[in-house]
Amino acid sequence: MNIVVGVTIIALVIGMGIVAASLYFYKLAVKRSSKSFLSGDPDTEIAKEWKRHAEENQQWLSRQSYEDVEIQSYDGLKLHGYYMAAKQPTNKLAILVHGYSGQGRDMVSYASIYYDSLGYNVLMPDNRGHGLSEGHYIGFGWHDRKDYLKWIEYLITRFGNEVELVLHGVSMGGATVLMTSGEELPEQVKVIVADCAYTSVYDQLTYQLKQMFRLPSFPLLSTTSLVCRLRAGYSFKEATALKQVERAKTPILFIHGEEDTFVPTQMVYPLHARCKSDKELWIVPKAAHGASILVDYDGYVEKVKNFVNRYIPV
């Protein structure tokens, strides 16, 4: 009996430890909060360079006229975005999707490509759980895909059926636009650009558990996924870009840095392979996570312009 009691106590202690660790990891990775654990990671330190570049470009943004816009999400959240009207009237518009723990204004470097080089209108939303948008958790692109359907609906209603849309996302934003690609998109969505996207939330967190914490995925990821299901309404395995691109009908440009060790470069190959729509893959030499635009700015602009113009003629 003592052995049985002892084993039971040990099992309870282990179980309580797993529960506590799962709650902690949910708070760390999914709950809306400061993501200070990212500081010091070599790849995100490199990625900070483009954020500094974006901060420098805030001067560019300050010279532009932009409008704060709001919509309501499918589940009742207030979502915020920054809208910039093109210098000359046009029906062409780029929706720019930021990464994990960022905000819409972080996409200003990409905004200047569409605004200055292509003459587009630009929308830079704050994802749920980020910036000025409501939400107590990070959707990792999964619930956000439904939010972007709402943004698309808003733009078509506001600007008419003749509007032509590009979705361009980076990092989590890249995964978000790929997850969106598998939905029934209106014909106004002409092009998708996905820069350094992950295959699925489960794959990305499995990789980061090993990379950052030296931990195996089992059992912590499964139990944390259950916590996420209960608190945020989705599981890590269902939040997959791989299955979504199999249903995609919109042309997709895949971009990934050759030296990305935060969202490992090898993730882009199955995404590209499974994509059923027109597609192109560009691996950027010597580029770390989110740094392709810095490593080869001119090449980045040219690649995006050429791909976008192929489906939205000038």
Major β-sheet, in short?
8 strands, mixed
Mean pLDDT rating: 90
Spatial order of the strands forming the largest sheet: 1-2-4-3-5-6-7-8
The rounded Rg comes to: 20 Å
Which structural class should the secondary elements be placed in? alpha/beta
Instruction: Compute the number of strand runs.
Output: 8
Q: H/E element string? A: HHHEEEHEHEHEHHHEHEHH
Number of helices: 12
First and last CA, distance: 80 Å
What is the overall silhouette? globular
Uncertain parts: none
Specify the helix fraction band.
40-55%
Work out the oligomeric state of the chains in this entry.
Answer: single chain
Question: What percentage of the residues does DSSP assign to strands (E)?
Answer: 15-25%
Describe the structure in your own words.
It is a single chain. With 314 residues, this protein is of the alpha/beta class. Helix content is 46%, strand content 16%. The protein has twelve helices and eight strands. The chain has an eight-stranded mixed sheet with strand order 1-2-4-3-5-6-7-8, sandwiched between helices. Strand 7, helix 10 and strand 8 (279-284) form a beta-alpha-beta unit. Helix 1 packs across helix 8 and helix 5 crosses helix 6 (172-181). The termini are far apart. The model has no long low-confidence stretch (mean pLDDT 90).
